[in-house]
Design brief:
Radius of gyration: 17 Å
CATH superfamily: Protein of unknown function DUF1054
CATH architecture: 2-Layer Sandwich
CATH class: Alpha Beta
Strand order of the largest sheet: 1-2-3-4-7-5-6
Helix content: 40-55%
Order of helices and strands: HHEEEEHHEEHEHH
Distance between the termini: 44 Å
Strand content: 15-25%
Structural class: alpha+beta
Number of helices: 7
CATH topology: BirA Bifunctional Protein, domain 2
Number of domains: 1
Number of strands: 7
């Protein structure tokens, strides 16, 4: 019998009504799994040799009314925070799992990042066709790199330079059903492969390539 890392009940947490009840389920069901992933992948990302990475499990501490619609563990080369840096995430919406590399609006180097990526666009277009991009981490929707094409990527990167709230996310989505069908080992391999491929993009973001 397969030992599954994710189960459908994990995704159903985001259907629980009320901030307190949803947060209790997140803390009991999801955050322990994020903590496990945090330890494992912080070490793996650190082994890449750019920086030492630290895990950051989302606490949603500032919320007072609206329950979180998604949650995640982030990885960045900083102990105290990650939002101002290019960072990796493994997370869940109610509909799917995501593994991404993210540049969000708090990053002060968005213009430089966009210029570097625009100059080496092949690092994105050479990713597998199923990989996705998005311009907003607050929305679950994304489009595949194959569908958006080079022109669409340039639009996203131009927007990253010129619009204050613009963001850039790249990675993989996995439906809740597909995620729950993976064994523990199968999911870890899936995540490792994803991070290994995204690290080539990360190297461009930070100017290493």
């Amino acid at each position: 019998m397969k030992n599954h890392f994710w189960v459908i009940d994990d995704f159903d947490v985001f259907s629980i009504a009320g901030l307190e009840n949803r947060m209790e389920a997140l803390q009991n069901k999801i955050q322990p799994k994020f903590t496990i992933l945090g330890r494992h992948f912080a070490d793996r990302l650190s082994a890449h040799g750019t920086d030492e990475f630290y895990p950051h499990v989302a606490k949603h501490a500032r919320r007072t009314v609206n329950p979180p619609r998604d949650s995640w563990v982030a990885f960045a080369p900083a102990k105290r925070g990650y939002k101002a840096l290019p960072h990796f995430q493994i997370g869940l919406w109610g509909t799917h799992l995501f593994i991404i590399l993210a540049v969000i609006y708090e990053n002060p180097d968005k213009k430089g990042i966009a210029e570097r990526l625009s100059g080496q666009l092949d690092v994105l277009t050479s990713l597998p066709a199923s990989y996705i991009v998005s311009g907003d981490h607050m929305k679950p929707e994304a489009v595949s790199i194959a569908e958006t094409g080079a022109d669409g990527l340039h639009v996203l990167l131009d927007r990253l330079q010129t619009v204050k709230k613009a963001e850039f996310l790249v990675g993989r989505h996995l439906s809740r059903e597909d995620a729950a069908a993976l064994s523990n080992d199968e999911f870890m391999v899936f995540a490792e492969e994803t991070f290994d491929q995204l690290l080539s993009v990360y190297d461009v973001l930070i100017g290493r390539k």
